[in-house]
Amino acid sequence: RLEEFLKKEVDLELSTLPDFEERVIDFSEVEQLMNSINTIPAPCAPVINPQAPNAATGTSLRVCWGLFSDDTVECYQLCYKPVSNERRSDEQAEHTLKVKETYCTITNLLPNTQYEFWVSALNASGISPPSERAVYVTAPSPPTIKSKKIRSCENAALVCWESRDINPVDSYMVEL
């Protein structure tokens, strides 16, 4: 039987065209859904911490901040500038640093000077709004003892010094 079947000529031509050859499938909704699943939202604004005790030297400040959300963050953009009482604050140099952690130590600052800090979070989708601004103050520089004015007697000593800081210093600690 197989031999007889193979000897026959078989017409394999279809009498009607299949419907699927003419259809165009619209994947735009699926593509939009897939793109929305794969994208992450831009992060929320970070919260900058107030200055911590012992977080300053005469020339450096340690600034810390955090996030109150589970946002994906690639890095942070920390901005700062010296605080000025003058109206020409636009002329003050504004500095920007990119940081991976939620803290940064800024160096080469002026002693006993106020600096304003704010931070933004960045990821592939964009940048967050900036945090509230926080003011940090560097420690005063050590005073200079006026050695020519030092006087002493059996039960007392007079020591004079002068501050090299422009801004007033709250208090001094004298150690013997």
TrEMBL record:
<dbReference type="InterPro" id="IPR036116">
    <property type="entry name" value="FN3_sf"/>
</dbReference>
<protein>
    <submittedName>
        <fullName>FSD2 protein</fullName>
    </submittedName>
</protein>
<dbReference type="InterPro" id="IPR003961">
    <property type="entry name" value="FN3_dom"/>
</dbReference>
<dbReference type="InterPro" id="IPR013783">
    <property type="entry name" value="Ig-like_fold"/>
</dbReference>
<dbReference type="InterPro" id="IPR050617">
    <property type="entry name" value="E3_ligase_FN3/SPRY"/>
</dbReference>
<dbReference type="Pfam" id="PF00041">
    <property type="entry name" value="fn3"/>
</dbReference>
<feature type="domain" description="Fibronectin type-III">
    <location>
        <begin position="46"/>
        <end position="142"/>
    </location>
</feature>
